[in-house]
């Protein structure tokens, strides 16, 4: 066959047919993509590596000490539950600031639910071990969970709030109470920064591994 000879007619005819079929497939998938996804079953929503709150409670066992003496908290704990060690052992100035903010937020219908506050060193160690297993390396785990000797939770200087309205409310108004988000990757984690009342909150670290306090 000469190179100039036209391709066989069958081949020419088949190309539009292939394109038409391809167009039909694409159209079908476009329709599928535009449809609202079905509501997933609850079991499929919870990922093995929960992207939420790795710094704290996350997928950690809710409580190994039912009395909360290790700092674990039951659902529905608020910043006013100061009979619980997780709240009672917070720095009193931090707790006062949280309660002041929570009273004002309550006027807006917002509740400050605590997912983690003070933690025992044992509890923090457990969270770290779990994070290393979950993230596969100590370096990656360090982006989310501090050691017992560096965690501001163990010293009572940090609180994690449920990511309902509270974190949204605080992100706009927290500085007025000296309450600041510290890590960009942890919008639930707040600490006291008294100077923020006048100066606003300082810039955030991308994650705890950038925090000089974690380098000890
Ligand atoms: Zn935290």
**Would you report the number of β strands?**
4
How many domains would you count in the coordinates? Answer: 1
H/E element sequence: HHHHEHHEHEEH
Computed Rg? 26 Å
CATH topology: Muramoyl-pentapeptide Carboxypeptidase, domain 2
Envelope shape: globular
Structural category: alpha+beta
Bound small molecules, which ones?
A: zinc ion
Sheet having the most strands: 4 strands, antiparallel
Our measurement of the CA-to-CA distance between the termini, rounded to an integer number of angstroms, reads 78 Å
User: Approximately how much helix is present in the residues?
Assistant: 25-40%
Q: Mean pLDDT across all residues, rounded? A: 79
Q: What is the spatial order of strands in the main beta sheet?
A: 1-2-4-3
Beta-strand level of the residues, as a percent range? Answer: 5-15%
Number of helices: 8
The top-level CATH class is: Alpha Beta
The assigned CATH architecture is 2-Layer Sandwich
Poorly predicted runs are 1-13, 16-61
Describe this structure in words.
The protein has 216 residues and is α+β, with helices and mostly antiparallel strands. It has a single domain, classed as Muramoyl-pentapeptide Carboxypeptidase, domain 2 (2-Layer Sandwich), CATH 3.30.1380.10. The protein contains eight helices and four strands. The protein has a four-stranded antiparallel sheet with strand order 1-2-4-3, covered by helices on one side. The N terminus is likely disordered. The site of zinc ion has 8 residues, from strand 2.
């Amino acid at each position: 066959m000469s190179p100039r000879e036209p391709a066989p007619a069958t081949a020419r005819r088949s190309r539009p047919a292939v394109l038409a079929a391809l167009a039909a497939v694409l159209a079908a998938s476009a329709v599928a993509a535009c449809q609202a996804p079905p509501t997933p079953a609850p079991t499929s929503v919870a990922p093995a590596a929960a992207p939420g709150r790795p710094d704290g409670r996350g997928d950690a066992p809710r409580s190994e000490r039912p009395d909360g003496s290790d700092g674990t908290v039951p659902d529905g704990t608020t910043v006013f539950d100061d009979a619980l060690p997780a709240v009672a052992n917070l720095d009193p100035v931090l707790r006062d600031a949280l309660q002041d903010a929570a009273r004002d937020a309550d006027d807006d219908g917002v509740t400050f639910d605590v997912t983690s506050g003070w933690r025992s060193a044992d509890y923090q160690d457990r969270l770290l071990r779990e994070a290393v297993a979950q993230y596969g390396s100590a370096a990656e785990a360090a982006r989310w969970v501090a050691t017992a000797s560096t965690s501001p939770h163990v010293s009572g200087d940090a609180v994690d709030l449920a990511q309902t309205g509270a974190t949204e409310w605080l992100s706009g108004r927290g500085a007025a109470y000296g309450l600041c988000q510290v890590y960009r990757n942890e919008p639930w984690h707040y600490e006291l920064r008294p100077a923020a009342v006048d100066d606003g909150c300082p810039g955030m670290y991308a994650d705890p591994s950038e925090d000089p306090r974690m380098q000890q």
